[in-house]
Amino acid sequence: MDNLITPTVATALQFLLNAAAFIAAAIAMEFVAMFTHKHIMHKYGWCLHYDHHNTSGHRLQKNDLYAIFFAGLSFVLIFFGLRNGWAPMASAGFGVGLYGIGYFTFHDIMYHGRIRRLKFKPKNRYLRRILNAHRVHHATVTQKGALSFHFLWAPKKYSSENQPEVDAQLKEIREMQMMLKKQRAEKGHG
């Protein structure tokens, strides 16, 4: 009775702690990415994010530096977690990496078609909702006025049941963006 935590219980607790760190990091990354997208990429970091909204046709974009930063974060967590025997830290790094895989798969491959041979037409309601939200976001080609900063989650207002409202919002944003571009051209800024 002296020691209530047997090796089996300790192993199970360690597994649960690692699993919780993995899942929490993967979920938290959506909020970190949304915050970064809204408050850094569309503000101070627009110089790197600009080419993502105004496609240059190049295979690599300055915007890819953000993905490299988050991949580096995942690597550092995994490396130091494994090196120092901090399994929850390594697990969190793998969770960040899992989010990165999801981001790359949906955002870069499925939405932006950066691997040209892979074409994707989502039939799943969840994926169509994310696609609609991202379409609304990318209708804005200027630094300001963008909506929907999420990557792997989207509010229900972007669901296919609300397609007429989403299409109307897209039309309104595109018209506003064309007007802004025209004004900038008239002032000699673009």
Total of helices? 6
Q: Give the H and E element order.
A: HHHHHH
Strand content: under 5%
Structural class: mainly alpha
Textual characterization of the structure:
- The protein has 2 domains: 7-120, no CATH class; 123-190.
- With 190 residues, the protein is mainly α.
- The longest helix has 38 residues, at 7-44.
- It has 6 helices and no strands.
Give a nutshell description of this structure.
Keywords: Carotenoid biosynthesis, Membrane, Oxidoreductase, Transmembrane, Transmembrane helix. The protein is an all-alpha fold.
Q: Which SSEs are present, and which pair or pack?
A:
Blueprint (H helix, E strand, L loop, with lengths): L6 H38 L1 H8 L10 H20 L3 H25 L13 H14 L24 H25 L3
Protein name: Fatty acid hydroxylase-like protein
Keywords: Carotenoid biosynthesis, Membrane, Oxidoreductase, Transmembrane, Transmembrane helix
Organism: Spirochaeta africana (strain ATCC 700263 / DSM 8902 / Z-7692)
